[in-house]
Amino acid sequence: MLTKRIIPCLDIKDGRTVKGVNFVDLRDAGDPVALADIYSKAGADELVFLDISATEEKRKTLANLVLRVAEKVNIPFTVGGGISSVEDVDILLQNGADKVSVNSSAVKNPKLINDLAAKFGNQCITVAIDAKQIDNEWKVHLVGGKVPTALNLFEWAKEVEERGAGEILFTSMDHDGTKDGFANEALAKLSEELNIPIIASGGAGSMKHFVDAFKKGKADAALAASVFHFKEIEIKNLKEILQNHHISVRL
Fold it and tell me: Is 51 helix (H, G, I), strand (E, B) or coil?
């Protein structure tokens, strides 16, 4: 049985870790390098580092910060934000990232997924999908959730898999920061329709929410930010609870 992964997410803006609710009202959550070090030692399975303003501000992910974070951690580490070319990915992987996450750029240029998978391998390519329900249909949003598209979440996810993505990071904008639980119905549908791992994101507020994401949502990994940043949930305790619910994790 494959172990389920617990992934702290570091959303970065102006060199600091931030956290908001429904993608707005950001507040400071600490130094990303220090947090990365803490999580690596605390038993996190992976880290995700997203420069959330990189696409909006049309600048590249801060490669130097990636290097500093990578020097501190000994677990797999995904980097996203403002990635739009093979060259961008090359720099980030050279600076120590294990994987990259593409979002808006992949929607605007779907062939980018094919190019990245061909160059670096499927295992390096995560496609992040931010979506919210509009008229009972999950619609994909871009640029940190600011720009709605006509794309259907499940149709886009299938295309992403076909183009060579190694995994999908699905964030429910409706659940993000609310601490009311993950979008388990949508997660379960994604898991049933696709053959690549699905990372659940948006809505973690309690340990039970993680249990539900794995049992009801059939997710392969669960990502969270504020509950870890502000020490509301300790990773070691979370993994013990998951194990008690017969969910396989790395202790």
Answer: strand
Mean pLDDT, rounded, of the chain: 91
Residue 9 sits in a domain whose CATH number is: 3.20.20.70
The whole-number pLDDT of residue 1 equals 67
**Do 35 and 74 contact (CB within 8 A), yes or no?**
no
181 domain residue, yes or no: yes
20-34, 74-88, 111-125: range with lowest mean pLDDT: 20-34
CA distance 48 to 225: 10
250 inside domain: no
The answer to whether the pTM exceeds 0.90 is: yes
Phi-psi region of 90 (alpha: psi -120 to 50; beta: other; left: phi over 0): alpha
Of 67, 90, 81, 70, nearest in space to 11 by CA: 81
Catalytic machinery residues:
11, 130
**Full residue range of the structural domain in which residue 136 is found:** 5-244
CA 77/CA 9 separation, integer angstroms? 10
172 HSE (CA, 13 A, CB side): 26
What is the band of 64 on the pLDDT scale with cuts at 50, 70, 90?
confident
